[in-house]
Amino acid sequence: MDPQETRTFALILIVCFTLGIIIIYFIVSIIRQQRRTLNIQKSVVLTELTAIERERARIATDLHDDISPVLSVIKFQIDNTVAATTADGQQLQAASQYIDEVLSRVREISSNLMPSSLLRKGLHVAIEEYLRKVEESGLVTINFSYDESLVIPEAYYANIFRIVQEVVYNVLKHAKATSVAVKVSQQKRKLVILVQDNGIGFDYSNTLAKGDGFGLQSLKNRTEAMDGRMVVQSKVAVGSAFLFTIPLKS
Amino acid sequence: MQLTLPEIFSLTILLGAFISAVRFRTADSSFLPFMILLWVGAANEVLSITLMSYGSHTAVNNNIYVLLEALLILWFFRRSDAALKNTYVFIALLGACTLFWIIDTLFVFGIRQISSYFRIFYSFIIVLLSINAINYLLFAEKDSLLKSPTFLISVCFVVFFTYKILIEAFWIKGLNNSSHFRNNVYAILVYLNLLVNLVFALVTLWIPRKQERSLLF
């Protein structure tokens, strides 16, 4: 190369080197920014979920501890009132039956908001009780298996219960399935939750993209709040499978 | 056959091509265009080196390769869902690249001559799409970006094709200079090619596995 070409080539090298530094800085800043955003997102979701669960638990306790005893007292008083006429007696009996229904409904709402078994007897029993209630509705048959050796942090109980509840609820609402399998197990140091049905299936990506999948988004948020992953597999007329893998931290 | 250093560097694409061939059945299918790109790239490098060893020109296969490369990368961005979500834009870009290639390669310069204009055109498109993909992943990726194959591929595309635009521009500018000068300019891309090929080989190892679970019912 002649001196002129050497000077031009040196200039090209300087341009390339400068550009390289700019690109590297750009990439490093993107990675750092993504980490920050990810941490903020996770912390916001976790705070929201914790607040929601706390509020649900408070409402469930209020319903169970405040409303139910009052209703029971009213029922007791009605049952012990002596009716003057047969018509009055029939009205009192009807009122007592209404209160029975309201009591039963309050218990149901309270249990849906925060199952007492989840706090008292743990995750396994809470899921089992919930699935038994669903099966008693006669809409689906449920095959439930739970790895007894699993040790799940208590902080995850509410989220995992809600995940199972949400998926099963979606299956009942949309899938037109007759069978559902729920499996909670451990693979290496990961908790694996698998819910499969034999329903009509759906297009997961489309549902999420259209913004219809509020429940799906909630499932995703809950899973990601525990650093987990959600995979959905669905085939039209064959069924759907929801797989959640959540790392079990020591 | 004695291989030169640039030839050895360009053959490093075989690493990624080999790994992707091994992982082909188990890898996530959205990376299929990328794997095909590695195979086509590897085949083109081998063919170019063979042709050069026989003293033949490599313009024809390289001209066909750049079109395939452009179309496969567009397909990759379409499949990865990160940069090309709009079907009409995807079709328009496919059409624009093909049309530009036909006019530039077949009518203006001829297939036996290397033209830098199409190379600058499609490199520019790929850089813009890669920036789109990086922006998308910045908020959509829930794991570390360094573990995301799409992110790493996009970064490699930004680096490689930005330099490619520059080098091709310098190449056009330096047409009147000596062949030694032009070869030196092109050598920058050869070193970059080595770096990108090695990252691609790593990326093919990190491509997520296909979700292999059969439905119970």
SSE layout:
The complex is a heterodimer of chains A (250) and B (217).
Chain A: H1 3-79, H2 86-113, H3 116-120, H4 123-136, E1 141-146, H5 157-175, E2 179-187, E3 190-197, H6 204-210, H7 214-225, E4 229-235, E5 239-247
Parallel strand pairs in A: 1-2
Antiparallel strand pairs in A: 2-3, 3-5, 4-5
Helix pairs in contact in A: 1-2, 1-7, 4-5, 5-7
Chain B: H1 5-10, H2 13-23, H3 32-53, H4 59-80, H5 87-108, H6 116-140, H7 149-173, H8 179-206
How would you describe this protein?
- The complex is a heterodimer of chains A (250) and B (217).
- Chain A is of the alpha+beta class and 250 residues long.
- Helix content of chain A is 65%, strand content 16%.
- Chain A has helices at residues 3-79, 86-113, 116-120, 123-136, 157-175, 204-210, 214-225; strands at residues 141-146, 179-187, 190-197, 229-235, 239-247.
- Chain A has a five-stranded mixed beta sheet, with helices on one face.
- The N and C termini of chain A lie far apart (64 Å).
- Chain B is mainly alpha-helical.
- The relative contact order of chain B is 0.14.
- The termini of chain B are far apart.
- The longest helix of chain B is centred in the C-terminal third of the chain and has 28 residues, at 179-206.
- The radius of gyration of chain B is 18 Å and the shape is globular.
- At the A-B interface, helix 1, strand 4 and strand 5 of A face helix 6, helix 7 and helix 8 of B.
Main traits of this protein?
heterodimer, A: 250 residues, alpha+beta, five-stranded mixed sheet, 65% helix, B: 217 residues, mainly alpha, 74% helix, globular
Order of helices and strands of chain B: HHHHHHHH
Helical coverage of chain B, percent range: over 70%
Shape of chain B: globular
Gyration radius of chain A, rounded: 28 Å
Beta-sheet strand percentage of chain B?
Answer: under 5%
Numbering strands along the chain, what is their spatial order in the largest sheet of chain A?
A: 1-2-3-5-4
Order of helices and strands of chain A: HHHHEHEEHHEE
The stretches of 5 or more residues of chain B where confidence is low (pLDDT under 50) are 212-217
Shape of chain A: elongated
Biggest interface between protein chains, with counts per chain?
A: A-B, 34 and 29 residues
